[in-house]
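Session log. Operator J.P. requested a structure for one protein chain; no other inputs attached. Running the standard single-chain path with token output.
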Amino acid sequence: MTKMATTSDFQRLCNNISTKLAKINSHTSELETLVEKLGTPEDSEPLRERYLRLQNETKLLMKETNNILQQLQSISLASEADQKRRKTLAETLPKQYLAILNRFQETQRAGARKEKDSLERARAVRYRQQSVYESHTADISGPSNTQLQQQYVLPIEQEVDLQGLTERNEQLCQIEKNIVEVNELFKDVGRMVHEHGGIIGELFNHFDD
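Structure written below.
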């Protein structure tokens, strides 16, 4: 026999969802600010570390939120008032959540683009540094001094060594992996509100571009 959830159980579930949505929204706002600083004179290693850590924390919060939303839809409620409230929340919360997911994913994509550009500039500097210290510079296919001068190279990009390039590339791969994982979370939420196909379809098309 299925155990009925009490009103207090239901309220705790609702409070948990609200708390997590607020945290995700707050994290996303901070990530938007951090992404704006990537590739600018304000860029720094501590900023990038904060950006990556916050991104991973937000992704974990999203996974937890998906699970709670599924619980909200599947729990058995004895109170008719709770059942009506659950119906309303099941329609409104996923839509609010999708809007936040959309912002977060846009921020991830913008961050990935900036990181790719920054990594290319750092690689260009590294190749040029090698050509200075190696005797067979003519055999090295790297950017010329003129090409480097035409680019705005940040101090954080000038100081990257081979190990640093490897770490930056791994970070970029992690960002791209996060984008894929959040797409899956988005689809899970989309299935919860499949009756609103027009809205979901429009956002899916946007993510798949």
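Operator note: DSSP finds seven helices and no strands in the chain.
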